[in-house]
Design goal:
398 residues; alpha/beta; 6-stranded parallel beta sheet
């Protein structure tokens, strides 16, 4: 049970946590993988190499300690993390392992400060938070399993189509091996895919946005191939170079707390690079409805050769009389469309027709891009509650 005394003690350790910084979580992961190497088949080991996961975990621990009296402030983060955990098929027993190594890490890094009282307080705090996640994730698992076409854990799928969408993005259509229905999802959500790349010693699980509207028959993901030698490109390069039509992969049920919600208001979709993938699902869903409110799609990418889904997007936009604008950072050939711009996305150039007061704005792309767009939208008078965004990789706050 988490008592007021526990809360006070945990809060008193915040300066200690901040002085340790991400080194604390780096030690934690090294310890955990040393004692429980089987977890390397669950955790994203690429993020371990880049340090992104250690930083993300440290920020999460610090945020929990600072908000332990007001967990409502963390509700959106809890929901986002719980969805992410289900895409890795995280179970209650994993929390026991994580808790053990977290407590032992604190003991090893701060033996003098880690008194019996501090250990008791942090153990109670961890168990309290872990139970919140366990309960929420159990509910999500049950929901997925009970739904029409739903399942629990990993399910075998066949690559039924592979389509190159641009110089760097390729789509994979995934059909269940048993030819049965698949669970419906909300436009904007993602799916966890489990593969064993030839260049990896471990099973690798990654999350990719679903890039088509839900159809109960199959799923489509569209994957950007990271650059040669990139630490982030292990799975994407494997999918592009080695996975072909007829090959098998395992999928977890769809997940994600970023998705389109119909509110009978105008909609503006804003993406950069491969952030266009969830927008394709939203755009397809909107095009298949009787939505009367106006839709605008704004997209930015490096150049024309990296512009994925150009024809597919134009078909949906033109067919409904909606609007679109495109920005190419470096044009590779002459721009010949009125709605095409060179350089970085600048909303001042297109602000006049945008529904700044009454619209809903959905964003997806690199964090730096979304930080810029959020600032631009707020400068134009858009309320923060009307801005919805998706972040790739370990969570970052805008």
């Amino acid at each position: 049970m988490l008592t007021n005394q526990h809360i006070d003690i945990v809060k008193s350790t915040i300066p200690l946590l901040e002085s340790a910084g991400p080194a604390l979580t780096q030690h934690f992961y090294q310890r955990m993988f040393s004692h429980n190497p089987e977890l390397k088949d669950i955790f994203n080991m690429t993020h371990q190499k880049t340090g992104r996961q250690s930083v993300a975990l440290f920020e999460a621990i610090a945020a929990y300690a600072k908000n332990i009296e007001n967990l409502a402030a963390l509700s959106s983060a809890v929901e986002r993390i719980a969805h992410k955990h289900t895409s890795f098929n995280i179970k209650a027993e994993h929390y026991q392992i994580v808790g053990l190594h977290l407590i032992e890490t604190l003991r090893e890094l701060a033996p003098d400060a880690f008194t019996t009282e501090v250990e008791e307080a942090w153990t109670a705090a961890y168990l309290f938070l872990a139970q919140i996640f366990i309960d929420r994730e159990s509910a999500l698992y049950l929901e997925s399993e009970a739904a029409n076409g739903g399942w629990a854990g990993a399910r075998s799928f066949i690559v039924s189509d592979k389509v190159k969408e641009s110089e760097v993005v390729t789509s994979f259509v995934l059909t269940p091996e048993d030819n049965q229905a698949v669970i419906a999802y909300k436009a904007g959500q993602y799916i966890g895919i489990e593969v064993t790349p030839s260049q990896s010693e471990h099973i690798e699980i990654r999350q990719y946005s679903l890039s088509q509207a839900s159809n109960n028959n199959n799923y489509r993901i569209s994957v950007k191939k990271e650059g040669e030698g990139s630490q982030l490109g292990l799975v994407s390069n494997y999918l592009h170079d080695e996975v072909n039509v007829g090959d098998k992969v395992n999928l977890m049920p769809p997940a994600g707390d970023f998705f389109y919600v119909e509110k009978q208001r105008p909609v503006v979709l804003i993406s950069a690079g491969v952030g266009c993938t969830p927008m394709q699902a939203i755009l397809q869903q909107l095009a298949g409805t009787e939505k009367t409110e106006h839709v605008t799609y704004l997209h930015a990418c490096e150049n024309q050769t990296q512009h994925a889904f150009l024809d597919e997007t134009d078909s949906a936009i033109v067919g409904r009389g909606w609007a679109s604008e495109v920005w190419y950072n470096t044009a590779t050939f002459e721009l010949n469309k009125a709605n095409t711009h060179q350089g970085l996305m600048d909303l001042k150039n297109v602000a006049n027709p945008l529904p700044l007061e009454e619209g809903d704005f959905y964003l997806c792309g690199p964090v730096v891009f979304m930080e810029s767009i959020v600032k631009q939208l707020e400068a134009l008078g858009v309320s923060r509650e009307h801005i919805h965004y998706e972040v790739f990789g370990p969570h970052a706050y805008l």
